[in-house]
Amino acid sequence: MTLTLLHNPRCSTSRAALEAVESTGVEVDVVRYLDTPLHEQAVLDLFEILEDAPGDLVRRDGTFKELGLTDDDVATKEQIAALLAEHPKLMQRPVLIAEKAAIIGRPKDRVPAFIEVSRDA
């Protein structure tokens, strides 16, 4: 089994997720999504297996506010996919992807359970 980690090395939670995966010996494909942003269809495909609500994938931080965005701007999967393709910095991190499931790795304690379930699947 190989997990994919959508990773931002500047984020302590993302670094912790990478360490958790590596400590289990599970193979991991690290994707630095800020360097290699997901395109709209890839985000839509992620929604098909994401255990979290699509809107949870959007960070509502200073950048969100600077862009003048509101919850109405991220009300549909299509809006979210277009926004994250254009502004990958707004994507919540880390995201762990297995073959048929994905999670946002927040809080950190979600990560070990996801690794274990994915390994057993």
Automatic annotation (TrEMBL):
Residues in the signal sequence: none
Q: Which domain of life is it from?
A: Bacteria
Q: Which family does it belong to?
A: Belongs to the ArsC family.
| PANTHER family in alphabetical order | ARSENATE REDUCTASE
Q: Can you say what this protein is called?
A: Arsenate reductase
Which organism is this entry from? Mobilicoccus caccae
Q: What is the lineage of its organism?
A: Bacteria, Bacillati, Actinomycetota, Actinomycetes, Micrococcales
